[in-house]
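Two proteins were folded this term; both appear here.
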Amino acid sequence: MQTKFIALFTLFFSSAAFSETAIVCQDCSTESAAESFAKSQANSLQCSEKPGADRVCQSESKVVTFVDYGSGQAYQYKVFHERSYPWEVHVERIPLSATREESFSLLMEFVKDSNSAIEEASTDFNQLLNKAHMSTVSANTSSGSGGICPENTALKVLTDPNTLDAIKTEASIAIGKQLLSTNNQLNFNPVKINNSYTLSFGGLSSSTAVDGDITTPVYIVTFDESERSSWRKDFLAYYVDILAFDAELLPVMRFTLLEESRVAGYQLKNLRGGDGVGSLSIDNACVKQAFEDAVNNQVLTPSTSDAAGSVGDGVPALSGSGWSFPTTSGCGTYTFEQGGLSSYTFRVCN
């Protein structure tokens, strides 16, 4: 038992010793700027309630590690307050090993290169169609609009699993190629999850803090067509995580759709009924047609409807059986599930 405890303690200590997380500083390229930043990270001063000269103030000292965004220079300081009035903040620099400094320098190159690659991969949907040799959105071909409704829209894509998958595949390829052209450190297993970045080098693991001063990049696909005309184009916006790299050094990625995306002329969170201001009222024939097509292609499932009038008029038919919104007078609130999740909620009035 004692042997097992020693082994576990050694493993824990070794992991802690070889891992380091740094805050990102946007302007710490000089020693004086670094010292000022370190002082700003001091713990809060805690003071007794005694007035005047009898007042006692103190804070716990801390070690802060950070890296300059531009240069990749890493720093580590012990930060503490004086124990007597005026309790000024002092810092003492702690040397980092050359390998650790190199690790953070490589990590910051990956941060900048991956962020640029994600943003530069953003594209127009029509360009994506040509580049990927994709056909137009096909899963939800309109059957009842007489051909007057646009097909290559954000709403049509969101309700077409095949096209969504193709978009993410093309994004992974575009981002991967851009990274390969600018970054030679992909064999160090760099990872980006949320707003934290990690890289292994020389037996050391170096990471950036999640709350660091890094602007999160967003991958955006813009659409020229929309069910509703507007001065602003529709777009799908994604946060992108880089989880690993495959044998061809292309990234394994996770895409998270932002509710701030714009779909059918609406903010996506409003179309989902989740902005706390009540459900949108949809009266656009092409928007309704897009949902009907998605239901009849068994991509969406209408789970609830409380249309005014008789109960029978308000109950939607099963998906895939010629479903359409009721035409009787009154208003109904509809919720549609996609992939087993409640995805859209809005009102339709006749």
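Next, the second protein.
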Amino acid sequence: MDEDTEYASSMGLNLERGIALGLVVLWAVIAFFIGGPVLAMRAVLVFSFPLAFIWLPEVMAKLQASERHEGFRLEGGVMPAVMKWMGWFILLGVPAVWGIFWWAI
């Protein structure tokens, strides 16, 4: 019975990752048609970070920003769920804002 629940949660995770990757590909294709291969590569580079937040939230949550001189450090880290939500917000929010400005012009 535990194997069935693990399989079901794994399938949900794979579906979420597939949707996120599909969105990045969609944004890159749209960028290619708007501005050519240079804009498409920029879109891939920009959206690879939120994709990493969605695909690897545990790893990304462990990364800590710290500087030796007057920097900041997150002692407790960030929860992986927050990283995943930030990734979805950027992955969906940035193109939505671009679309609003595109249609407003």
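Residues 2-104 form one domain. Helices lie at 2-55, 57-62, 80-104. These notes refer to the second protein only.
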